[in-house]
Amino acid sequence: LSLKFGDIGNLKGLVIRFLLTTTYYQLSVQNWFSLHRLQLLYNHSIQATFNATRIYAPASYSYHCEHVSSLQRYDALLIPSSANDLSKLWEVTFIDFQIQGFNIQEGHFAYAKDCASFLSPAILMGLVMSLILLLVLAYALHMLIHLKSLDRHYECKASPAYFAQMKENDMGDEKEPLRSSSSESYELRNQQFCKIYI
């Protein structure tokens, strides 16, 4: 596929040649076309050659990309074919690039396969953050579901507490001697304790 500039001043002898190939893939059960190489010709001599990467689409579609360039800031889909080639002296950038080499109907592009990646760094970061938030929410719901109510039932009963014999001045009026065969013990009359049932 050749793009000629006609009689536009200094570009009169410039031709941009796109070498396209088609391949049948059994997995997708259809033909795909790909841009294999880009050549710049001036006055019928090849000035630069670039190998194209990741420029492909189903044969019944067209391919569209905001930037197809040899510059790194535009993701460099065009790579010089050789280190010794004059391609290194050229910088090629197509803006709003769309191409379709086969199955063209009525002179219009078919539905376009866009070059935007479905797993760009921004999308990956969004997916990771969504997963973290989902895990936190799941953990919070799990804790809420398994939270038990704290119904407390208090039952207070008077119960005697026994202590060994102590000095009389420490016990005061709250002691009463208990009869026992072996040792003398005292009961605290007002001692109470509470049982808590959870």
TrEMBL record:
Q: Where in the cell is it found?
A: Membrane
Q: Which GO terms describe its molecular function?
A: ATPase activator activity
* Residue ranges of every copy of the V-type proton ATPase subunit S1 luminal domain listed in the record: 1-102
> What membrane topology term does the record carry?
Single-pass membrane protein
**UniProt-recorded name of the protein:** VAS1L protein
Primary localization class, coarse: membrane
Give the record's keywords alphabetically.
Membrane, Transmembrane, Transmembrane helix
Instruction: Say which domain of life the source belongs to.
Output: Eukaryota
Taxonomic lineage is: Eukaryota, Metazoa, Chordata, Craniata, Vertebrata
One GO CC term on file: bounding membrane of organelle
Pfam families in alphabetical order: Ac45-VOA1_TM, VAS1_LD
> Which species?
Upupa epops (Eurasian hoopoe)
Q: PANTHER family from the entry?
A: ATPASE, H+ TRANSPORTING, LYSOSOMAL ACCESSORY PROTEIN 1-LIKE, VACUOLAR ATP SYNTHASE SUBUNIT S1
Sequence intervals crossing the membrane: 122-145
| Any one biological process term the GO annotation gives | regulation of cellular pH
Location of the V-type proton ATPase subunit S1/VOA1 transmembrane domain: 117-154
Keyword match Mitochondrion: no
Please give the family membership noted in the entry.
Belongs to the vacuolar ATPase subunit S1 family.
